[in-house]
Write a structure and sequence with these properties.
- GO terms for molecular function: endochitinase activity; glycosyltransferase activity.
- One of its GO terms (cellular component) is fungal-type cell wall.
- It is a lipid-anchor; GPI-anchor.
- By secondary structure, the chain is mainly β.
- The protein has a domain of about 240 residues: Jelly Rolls (Sandwich), CATH 2.60.120.
- The protein has three helices and 26 strands.
- The strands form six sheets. Strands 4, 7, 8, 10, 15, 16, 17 and 21 form an eight-stranded antiparallel beta sheet that branches. The chain has an eight-stranded mixed beta sheet with strand order 5-6-9-20-11-12-13-14, with no helix packed on it. Strands 3-22-23 form a three-stranded antiparallel beta sheet, with no helix packed on it.
- It is globular, with a radius of gyration of 20 Å.
- Bound molecules: 2-acetamido-2-deoxy-beta-D-glucopyranose (3 copies).
Length: about 450
């Protein structure tokens, strides 16, 4: 079915006009158009994977454009194999087929999963295929190191509630914690926890999340507590407290990429050195994950249940009383489908004519940061510091040979048969403090 993305292939062979447009962007005041109804976590409109994990119903064409989110499952993820990992270009929303989806270059080394970031790439991001609506999650891990290199372990909801652990690679004795409500950037809420040598030593980083409190624990010791009661926003009359089903997301991303906003680069400890000893020795930066354990919240009444198949939203306000734990299906038949038409492109039915589809935007690119990266004008030069990776990072695509402004040709210059490491990159978002990368990795592969 993916061969159907003919227009993209044609574009890569030279008809760049097809791709000369950036994917339509979306926001609270700018919903996606009907043809590309799903607003990805990188705030770009598309179909297929755009409608799965990270799809923001508030910014999409309609509340049901995004697919419902698979409910929480208790699970200990032994990170010693990639058997249960799929690239987002291969995933159609059924959590029985994969535990993790992502972009970039994860690999197995010594029984652990490494998230890698080769030179000039935008790193690697993995997210669980099921969502937690409160609960506990614990990661046994080691960070990366180096200026501009950011490791993240976060909970991230489709409406951009977020609970973070983040490490900047110039300070291996501190982990920064933060939380956000619906992506509202407020950098005054970060808090540091001391940790001994996050690069060389495994530590257990845990988030305990209830409707009333977030607790961050390192090696079993409480490092920080945030109570909902202390998050009242008198302007909006609501709690600025994470409260919606969230994926566990782990990532390694280049906060210090030179195209990022200055505030982001400063926060990340400076520009990335793609010639560092780390790169010379291994060929990439990496963070190491040994085990991740998810314990769903135990309650018999909402919020926080996990009785049904999926979570969806009944209202655009996307607060915890609008989350519906029900039995709506979570899958699509192809990367041309959306929540509005889940069977579009079904390879079983649609043989042959799918090429007419214009699904250029079927797989969202990983973006470096998603909206709450420091370094937007407001924040520039401020020392309020810690930013969120948001979704932090994305495809690992070697931007090296492809890094031109605007969309580039197929990077290997070959037949239009794009290999998994090729990328096109969109420029021009830097001004807003974001760098967006559109990955076409894998689009033409299958
Ligand atoms: C946390 O630590 C970093 C250095 O790693 C520092 O720049 C930042 O100001 C600290 N933030 C807080 C809230 O103390
Ligand atoms: C309170 O809510 C308003 C409206 O959503 C928002 O603009 C503002 O940033 C919030 N204040 C804080 C401190 O988060
Ligand atoms: C979530 O829902 C519970 C129960 O309905 C309520 O008491 C609580 O205040 C809500 N929390 C937030 C952060 O909205």
């Amino acid at each position: 079915m993916l061969q159907s993305l003919l227009p993209l292939g044609v574009a890569l062979l030279g008809a760049t006009s097809v791709l000369a447009q950036d994917p339509p962007t979306c926001g609270l005041d700018k919903k996606c158009p009907k043809e590309t109804p799903c607003c990805s976590q990188y705030n770009q409109c598309g179909v297929g994977a755009f409608c799965l994990g990270g799809c923001d119903p508030r910014m999409s064409f309609s509340l049901d454009s995004c697919l419902p989110a698979p409910t929480c499952k208790d699970k200990t993820y032994k990170m010693d194999s990639l058997d249960r990992y799929k690239d987002i270009s291969e995933y159609l929303g059924d959590p029985s087929t994969a535990d993790w989806v992502g972009q970039g270059e994860p690999l197995i080394y010594n029984g652990n999963t490494l998230l890698t970031m080769p030179p000039k790439s935008v790193g690697t991001v993995l997210a669980t295929t099921t969502y937690m609506w409160y609960g506990n999650v614990k990661a046994r891990m080691k960070t990366s190191k180096g200026a501009g290199v950011v490791t993240a372990f976060i909970l991230f909801s489709d409406v951009k509630d977020e609970i973070d652990y983040e490490w900047v690679g110039v300070d291996l004795n501190t982990v920064q914690t933060n939380y956000y409500f619906q992506g509202i950037t407020d950098y005054t809420q970060s808090g540091n926890i001391s940790v001994a040598d996050s690069y060389n030593e495994f530590h257990d980083y845990e988030i305990q999340w209830t409707p009333d409190q977030i607790t961050w624990l390192v090696d079993g010791k409480v490092g920080r507590v945030k109570k909902r009661a202390d998050t009242w926003n008198a302007t909006s009359n609501q709690w600025n407290f994470p409260q919606t089903p969230s994926r566990v997301q782990i990532s390694l991303w280049p906060g210090g990429l030179e195209t990022n906003a200055k505030g982001t680069i400063d926060w990340a400890g400076g520009k990335i050195d793609w010639n560092s000893d780390e790169i010379k020795k291994n060929g990439y930066y990496y963070a190491t994950f040994g085990e991740i354990k998810v314990e769903c919240y135990k309650t018999s009444s909402a919020p926080g249940t996990n009785k049904g198949i999926s979570y969806s939203y009944s209202d655009i306000s996307a607060t915890n009383n609008t989350v519906v734990d029900g039995n709506k299906p979570t899958t699509i038949k192809s990367l041309l489908a959306t929540g509005l038409d889940t069977t579009k492109g079904d390879p079983a039915k649609d043989k042959g004519n799918a090429a007419q589809s214009s699904a250029v935007y079927a797989v969202p690119g990983g973006g470096v940061g998603t909206g709450n990266v420091p370094g937007t004008d407001k924040n520039e030069g401020s020392d309020s510091g810690s930013g969120s990776s948001g979704s932090g990072s994305g495809s690992s695509t070697s931007a090296s040979e492809c890094a031109k402004t605007g969309f580039s040709q197929s990077c290997d210059g070959s037949s239009g048969q794009v290999n998994g490491n090729d990328a096109v990159r969109v420029s021009g978002l830097g001004a807003s403090g974001l760098a967006a990368f559109i990955s076409i990795a894998g689009l033409l592969l299958l």
